[in-house]
Design brief:
32% helix, binds ligand ANZ
Length: 962
């Protein structure tokens, strides 16, 4: 047996695989296909660290298994190399981005090759290659032709440090996601893509995807669909005729219109009014400036403002439901980029409005009574109507609770029935005295809010429909009379005082509500029954939303949080747009024959502060001569051609996300010069079956790619509406110090060094064994050594290969179980448990002096996806004429053999083990009992006594007591 020399072995087989084209994509008629894809990397100047390949190893294991299972597998790799990071790296290192990218790609590729991935390198793509980006440009052109790309001059997010406009997806909490600088709003000529046109379909189709639920949920939130209404309030502006102006608000709660006590507009809207001639008071102008100056809070439109502030404008709005005039305020929590930039404020039922109204002493008008039906009450017969109270009784920062016996479940605040009583207050004080003996109490408040609660009382076996009044009681002292309890309630409950934290856990709806109202000061924000709402009083919110919208001439609308995709960057290193402008600055797309519109190679490409792209300074590139062909598309002509006119190119470039929005299609047909992808090949391979990458792409790349894919579906380029059927997120590998691996912390581990010292196979095994795939986990070299030892043991076991006479049942069962578990676990991306099973199996194999060759080779085949080099070497040594192990057939298992037919169990007499018996694994208790009692040793120990007890724990032990 030769030595396990990983350096030699790994180099040898990598060369062999490369030379023999082993991983070239196959296309076998009648075979099933499997497209396994990694999110392609941006090749940074630092090269890979050990965390990067974790996802690639996982997909590689998966792809290798699928190939051995007879699938045609497409498993490619490429480079996402346009964009800011590459440009900034190049600027810093004073090289051209193109040169930097080429060098970095070469380095990445070499690093990947050393880890032994089974990529089909014939299909490598790079987004910066003109043969690639001509198609990116082509897709943009189609978007433009369909009216989904347009020029805009709206203020957009501007990063003053990166000197470029950014989309909302490029932000992280109001700052540039790349450099952390606060973004500003800057009006800028832009290209914008109408991604919202696809919002509904992107939402609906999420349901059908096999993606982690949290990724789907963050996409849903990012898209943020809200159904509501636009309602117009006529304005009374001092010094102007009534009704000349009006403001339209967006609301999701038109049912609360009667409770609107003010209208609030965004500072931007107020500024707009001022510009249009509104003679605003100085205080208003001052506040508007102040709010607009709070850049951080204004920039990111989803952020909650820290402190709500505003100013009364003096303008009045007429509530279209009540015809009452209500004041118009400017408020910093009203965002200009959402809805209509104006709201109707309902402090009684909205938290932000409630806070604001409290600060500025604006009336709170209650219009919705809570209505809750407990699910248990449904179908439980007639409901008895009841009037009740639920009071929050407070003393010394704690809250009274009555816990009913015997369950002592569900904390209850004081409750009682008020049939026939004069006032709610009387009832409360009587109940309090009767049940708890406390008499020194003051009723602080009885709410106008009535909680309608339908529930089933198990103690009484009866369904109730209760109108529950809410009240707040303060206990002045703990002075107590002995409670005059009604006899039937005596001793049935305990009195307890809850802390705020404990009270927060109360789930009973009316009780939770009374606590929220009085202890937390929270308004009721749910749906319910309308009160104080004129002709609409008594309606439920659902009906009222429609009825009130109609009654006041409002319009049902849908709003999205998702913003249109700001698609231009004022930087050099990106795809040029396939757009030219004529003398009138009218944009025209270029003809297909003009593609690719290549990026000029220039020396100086520093960004400018002006919002102009650096390309704008390159006159020779910007100016083009040509004409518009009959389709209205631009075609170049020689300058002296009589038909030639002067046009200028668009000088912005596309954002980093452009190429990655469709690159996965290119791998299917990477050398096609005329089309993105051949339709027949697209049908064969698309969509991607399994996509693996970081969770940070949830609301960036994964939103953009779904949008483009759906568009390509609509124009017939792809045949399935979704790009990625199954998605899995890779958990980070942290440094051993628990921090993120980063040059800044000096804790980066280079995989090259690990591959050299321990071998690629050990690295692969270790990364797959670290823990659950999706979990973040710290690098630990001791465990890496453990992975290496495991491989050495497998290697040494090959010396014991021979021809044993028979296979013990224990081994048969373990063998089948292992094949089954490894296959199923790889399918589920549960690599760590697959490896744990192989370890258990190896322990057992090592107990035999001779291991059957077939058994050993079979073990190698299931280990091959994890340790492709070592298994290939052993396979060829034992099996010289069989070709590569990676084209061997994946073993199958016999379900019946995954369980023992016989089980061996111990027999105890008075707690001491006296014998073992072997019985069929499925034996009945009576048979186990008889076998145990008949065992000669047991007969001896019983010495003629009749056992008092025989206890059988199935499959484990028989315990006899005499
Ligand atoms: C009245 C109202 C009463 C509202 C009520 C809520 C509760 P989502 O669900 O996130 O779409 N709103 C509308 N435009 C706004 C803007 N530009 N800036 C800040 N807030 C805005 O939220 C919709 C609700 O947010 C709308 O419904 C509006 O307040 C507020 F009991 O109108 B609502």
């Amino acid at each position: 047996m030769h030595k396990y020399d990983h350096l030699l072995i790994e180099e040898k087989w990598q060369k062999f695989w490369r030379d023999s084209g082993l991983y070239r994509t196959t296309s076998t008629p009648g075979s099933k296909k499997c497209y396994v894809l990694d999110m392609f990397p941006y090749p940074s100047g630092e090269g890979l660290h050990v965390g990067h390949p974790k996802g690639y190893i996982a997909t590689d294991v998966y792809a290798r298994m699928k190939r051995m299972q007879g699938y045609d597998v497409l498993h490619p790799m490429g480079w996402d190399a346009f964009g800011l990071p590459a440009e900034q790296y190049a600027l810093k290192n004073k090289v051209h981005p193109k040169a930097a990218v080429e060098k970095n790609i070469a380095r990445y590729k070499a690093q990947l090759e050393h880890i032994g991935f089974s990529y089909d390198w014939d299909r490598e793509v790079s987004t910066t290659n003109p043969d690639f980006y001509r198609h990116t440009q082509w897709i943009f052109k189609q978007l433009w032709k369909k009216g989904l790309a347009y020029e805009s001059h709206e203020p957009i997010n501007w990063c003053p440090s990166c000197k470029t406009g950014l989309s909302n997806e490029d932000l992280d909490g109001g700052a540039c996601e790349r450099c952390g600088t606060k973004v500003e709003k800057k009006p800028l000529r832009q290209w914008v893509l109408k991604i919202t046109a696809y919002a509904d379909r992107m939402l609906a189709d999420l349901d059908g995807l096999n993606w982690p639920e949290h990724i789907k949920e963050s996409q849903r939130n990012w898209i943020g669909k809200s159904e509501g209404a636009e309602i117009t309030f006529p304005l009374r502006v001092p010094g102007q005729p009534d009704g000349k102006h009006a403001v339209t608000v967006f609301t999701t709660r038109p049912d609360t219109l009667y409770g609107a006590t003010y209208v609030a507009i965004s500072a931007e809207r107020a500024q707009d009014w001022i510009q249009k001639g509104w003679d605003a008071p100085d205080a208003v102008r001052k506040m508007v400036d102040e709010i607009l100056a709070d850049e951080k809070e204004r920039a990111f439109d989803l952020a909650e403002v820290a402190e709500k502030k505003g100013v009364n404008t003096g303008v009045m709005a007429v509530n279209p439901a009540t015809q009452e005039p209500i004041p118009v305020w400017v408020a910093n929590y009203v965002l200009s980029g959402y809805g209509t930039g104006a709201i109707m404020a309902v402090p009684a039922h909205d938290e932000r409005d409630y806070d604001f109204a409290k600060t500025y002493n604006i009336p709170v008008v209650h219009v919705i009574d809570p209505v809750v039906e407990h699910p248990d009450v449904v179908g439980k017969g007639d409901r008895i109507h009841k009037k009740k109270i639920v009071a929050l009784v407070e003393h010394d920062g704690k809250y009274l609770s009555i816990r009913w016996k015997p369950e002592l479940g569900g904390n209850l605040f004081l409750g009682g029935t008020i049939e026939g009583e004069d006032t709610v207050s009387d009832t409360i004080l009587r109940e309090l005295a009767e049940e708890t003996g406390y008499t020194d109490a003051t009723v602080v408040d009885v709410a106008e809010e009535v909680f309608h609660y339908d529930y089933f009382a198990y103690s009484k076996g009866q369904a109730f429909s209760a109108d529950i009044h809410l009240a707040h009681v303060r206990l002045n002292s703990l002075a107590q009379i002995s409670p005059a309890l009604e006899s039937d309630e005596a001793g049935k409950f305990e009195v307890e005082w809850l802390t705020k934290e404990e009270a927060l856990r109360v789930v009973n709806p009316p009780h939770a509500r009374v606590f929220a109202r009085y202890a937390l000061g929270a308004p009721y924000t749910g749906n319910g029954k309308l009160v104080h709402s004129g002709v609409h009083t008594g309606l439920h919110s659902d009906q009222a939303k429609i009825a009130i919208t109609e009654a006041v001439g409002g319009k049902q609308t849908t709003q999205y949080r998702l913003k249109e995709w700001v698609f231009a960057r004022q930087r050099y290193w990106g795809e040029p747009f396939p757009i030219v402008f004529d003398e009138m600055h009218t944009p025209h797309v270029v003809a297909d024959s003009e593609l690719p519109g290549t990026l000029p190679m220039v020396e100086a490409y520093e960004p400018t502060d002006t919002g102009e792209s650096p390309l704008a300074n390159i006159r020779e590139w910007v100016e083009v001569y040509g004409h518009l062909n009959p389709e209205g598309e631009f075609e170049t002509l020689p300058k002296d051609d009589p038909r030639a006119r002067r046009f200028t190119r668009e000088t912005n470039t596309m954002p980093q996300w452009a190429g990655s929005s469709w690159y996965y299609l290119r791998y299917i047909d990477p050398h096609n010069a005329s089309h993105i992808v051949d339709p027949a090949l697209e049908k064969e391979w698309s969509p991607v079956d399994f996509y693996v990458g970081g969770a940070e792409h949830a609301t960036r790349h994964l939103i953009y790619a779904r949008f483009w894919h759906k568009f390509l579906f609509d124009i017939g380029v792809v045949s399935h509406p979704e790009p990625f059927l199954r998605l899995m997120n890779v958990g980070l590998i942290m440094a051993s110090d628990g921090r993120k691996m980063s040059k800044r912390w000096g804790n980066v581990i280079n995989p090259d060094h690990i591959v050299e010292r321990f071998g690629a196979d050990a690295l692969r095994m270790y990364e797959m064994f670290m823990g659950p795939f999706g979990q973040a986990i710290a690098w630990n070299e001791d465990n890496l050594v453990g992975a290496r030892r495991f491989l050495e043991r497998v290697w040494r076991l090959s010396a014991r290969v021979g021809e044993p006479t028979s296979e013990p049942e224990e081994l048969t069962v373990m063998r089948h179980r292992t094949k089954k578990k490894v296959s199923e676990d790889i399918e589920q991306f549960a690599f760590n448990t697959a490896i744990a099973q192989m370890m258990t199996y190896l322990n057992l194999l090592e107990k035999s002096d001779v291991v059957a060759k077939e058994t050993y080779l079979e073990f190698l085949t299931i280990l091959a996806p994890f340790a492709p080099h070592m298994t290939e070497e052993l396979w060829h040594t034992l099996n010289p004429d069989q070709g590569s192990i990676h084209r061997a057939t994946w073993p199958t298992w016999d379900e019946a053999k995954t369980a023992h037919t016989m089980s061996t169990i111990g027999v105890q007499v008075n707690g001491k083990l006296r014998a073992t018996i072997t019985v069929p694994a499925t034996a009945e208790e009576s048979m186990v009992r008889e076998t145990a009692l008949a065992h000669p040793d047991i007969v001896k120990w019983l010495a003629g006594n009749t056992p008092k007890k025989v206890i059988i724990v199935a499959g484990k032990i028989v315990s006899i007591v005499v």
